[in-house]
Each structure stands twice: as structure tokens, then as C-alpha cells.
Amino acid sequence: MGFETDDPRVPNSQEIAKKMGLEIEFIEEPGDSPINHPNTAVLDMVGRDKKMRVSGCSIGGGAIEIREIMLRGMEIRPAGPLPIILYIDSDKNKEKELALTKEIERVAPFENRQVLQGKECNIYEFNIKNYMRDKTKKSLASKYDGIICL
User: Cα(79)–Cα(62) distance, rounded to whole angstroms?
Assistant: First the structure.
């Protein structure tokens, strides 16, 4: 929905989402956390032809750590707190991936990256050092299809 954490619309986000055609359901599950943290949220996002699961937790001081992402049948385990960039390379185009890696290093330096190779696509996960400006996120998204900025 594009809200910042301090956006005054956050308290009304469920109503806003409903007006946008988004269905949100909260289910509190008994038992241990699937990612071994007491303050855990698991988001299952389903669209017409897309499905994604993100498991994360609040680690204090306003920081969020994503511990597991299920995307395109692949399990991604990021190595730290947000922000994270995911790049889904359906073409498995090494030149495009190299160009993206260089650009990310220039505009949003990263601690590390991991590459997951699948049958249908490769997924690149970048653990970004600092929060990115919206302008940076939009620029990357306009140049590279398949970018997800968390």
C-alpha cells in the first residue's frame, strides 16, 4: 500500500485495504513460532497467479528482521534486518543481473547477497546496509522487472 511506518493512515489501513480490493485476515495460531521468535508475523500473500510467504519478527528499536521468504517454490533465508532487495530473474540473464548488482552497489550498498537457482527463474537476495529512499526504489523498479524492495 506504500505507507511509511509513521503514516497517519496506518490505524485505518485495514479499511483502506478493503476499499482497494485487498482482503486481509488475521489468524492467531497457538504453539511455537515457526521462526523461533516470540514476536512473529507470517504474511501469506496470494494473487491471481502469484503467491508469496514472508515470515518476520520485530527485533526491537523499530527494526524488523525477515527470517524466511517462500517465493516461486524457493526458500530464502535473509541474513539480517530490513531493508532487502529481491530480484526475480525469469530470463536467467547474467548480464542483466551483473548490471543490477553494480547499480545496487552504487545506489544502495549491500552487506551480502545470495543466489537461488530454480528451474523457472533465479532469485537474487541483497541485504542492504541502509534504508533506501523511495526515489531509489522507484528507479530500480522502473529499470528492472522482477524487483521487490522490502
Answer: 18
For residue 97, give the 3-state DSSP assignment. Answer: helix
Distance CA 74, CA 68 (A): 10
Please give the chain's pLDDT, 150 residues, in tens.
778 777 899 889 889 989 998 888 888 778 887 777 778 888 888 888 888 898 888 888 777 888 899 998 899 998 878 899 999 999 998 898 999 999 999 999 999 999 999 998 999 999 999 988 889 999 999 999 899 998
| pTM across the whole model | 0.79
For cell 503514516, the residue is: 7
Output the CA–CA distances (angstroms, integers) from residue 39 to 15, 35, 36, in the order listed: 24, 10, 9
Let me know if 26 is exposed, middle or buried by CB neighbors in 10 A (0-12, 13-18, 19+): exposed
C-alpha to C-alpha distance for 14 and 150, rounded to whole angstroms: 20
What single-letter amino acid sits at 130?
A: N
H-run or E-run covering 14: helix 13-19
> Is the distance from CB of 64 to CB of 57 less than 8 angstroms?
yes
Output the nine-digit C-alpha cell for 98. 551483473
